[in-house]
Amino acid sequence: MRITDKLQPITNGESCVAVGFFDGLHVGHRAVIDRLCKCKNLRPVLISLSNNSSPVIYTEEEKSYLLQNGKLDTMFSLSEDIIKNMTAESFAHDVLNKMLNTKTLVAGENALFGLDQVDVNHFRSIGKKYGFTVETVPMECINGLEVSSNTIKQTIHDGDFSKVSSMLGSSYLISGTVVHGKGAGHKFGMPTANISIAANKLFPPHGVYGSISRFQGENHFGMTNIGLRPSDDDIPIPTIETFLLNFDRDIYGQKVFLELLVYIRGIRKFDGGLAEVRQQIDKDIKQIHSYIEENGNLLQVKPKEIC
């Protein structure tokens, strides 16, 4: 799959296109992309827009990571600014027709197009003028609830990561780079990897999580602390740090893809010193091991390929 942050013409062949923010790549988005990849004799092309005004479930890097092994021909990872001021008609003519040689557009049934917010039925009539058809995919529902990016954001805030995973189609993902921290984990005999994430990433609820870290082809279970560290310092800056179970190598500078499996507990301050903190950490790790045993060999269950 070719990934580019520049909108470029498709010159060799005709295309089947889907366009949107695809924030979270949830099961509804996956249904659209799966249909996109089934267009016969057309190149499947995804236009993924980044939201510049609010925190995102998944960054463009995380979307690319989840899509990289699928059947897409091209992914245009673009700022919304590139097309947000286009009317539906100008988008159909200038981008879909002239640049991408589009013959089929795939969209969710509630999709809106252009600055003028044209619905699917209206856009279908515009498509006829420029030589492409519009196919729609129904909304996905789980337990009677329509799956949407806004619903998932609220569920993340609520800390219900089992429900989040069911709506996303895989475990919630955080990508970042391992950076130097204060070395606080060494006090407890548990060095942690401090992970720096993108500024526009939706920050999960503060707490302790069971997790999987994936980097350089390796997969490791871990315990991840997200938020403040009231028992260690009073710095009011939340962090993401993960302790990898049965692992003791230096991974500074590595790109890590962290999956949050289960919420263990909230952040709390321990007044009993290092011994009390260590005692609680041991309880947390035991709970994570129990979760792992109950849910099988999760290390081998990589994020599901999309299309």
From TrEMBL:
An example GO biological process term is: riboflavin biosynthetic process
Q: Which UniProt keywords apply?
A: ATP-binding, FAD, Flavoprotein, FMN, Kinase, Multifunctional enzyme, Nucleotide-binding, Nucleotidyltransferase, Transferase
Any idea which GO molecular function terms this record carries? ATP binding; FMN adenylyltransferase activity; riboflavin kinase activity
Which parts of the sequence belong to the Riboflavin kinase domain? Answer: 167-293
Q: Which reaction does it catalyse?
A: FMN + ATP + H(+) = FAD + diphosphate; riboflavin + ATP = FMN + ADP + H(+)
> What's the EC number here?
2.7.1.26, 2.7.7.2
Pathway field:
Cofactor biosynthesis; FAD biosynthesis; FAD from FMN: step 1/1; Cofactor biosynthesis; FMN biosynthesis; FMN from riboflavin (ATP route): step 1/1
Pfam families xref list = FAD_syn, Flavokinase
Locate the coiled-coil region(s) and give their ranges.
none
| Organism domain of life | Bacteria
Q: What class of enzyme is it?
A: transferase
Membrane spanning residue stretches: none
Role this protein plays = Catalyzes the phosphorylation of riboflavin to FMN followed by the adenylation of FMN to FAD.
Q: Name the family.
A: Belongs to the ribF family.
Q: What protein am I looking at?
A: Riboflavin biosynthesis protein
Native source organism of the sequence = Treponema denticola H1-T
